[in-house]
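All the exercises in this workshop are built on plain-text protein records. A record pairs a protein's sequence with a compact description of its fold. Read left to right, the backbone structure tokens trace the chain's path through space. Once this layout is familiar, the rest of the handout is easier to follow. Here is such a record, shown just as it appears in the course material:
>
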Amino acid sequence: QRLSSDSSEVRTLVSALAEKVDVATVGLDAQAIGNALFGLQRLKSDSPEVRSLVQAIALKIVLLPVEMDSKGIGSALYGLHSLSSDSPQVRALLAALADRISLSKK
């Protein structure tokens, strides 16, 4: 069985992760961004906790001049497949990723 945002325990974990990402002073590199988003692959953006984590990750991407490589891009995109673009937080994440991908030289 896989993690699902339908579980209260998973939502509690995601909420704790969102808080850590939000206050982190260490930047995210391309691999960390790809890994973080890859980890969202079974979570749905209808959960406020997931939207909070997505927003925190999007903000870190915007604030840090990260160049995405092909592996990071692939992992990030794969992790997004269960999220809905109806959410403003997801749209902000998509915009941040698009910006980083457009700056990529690889």
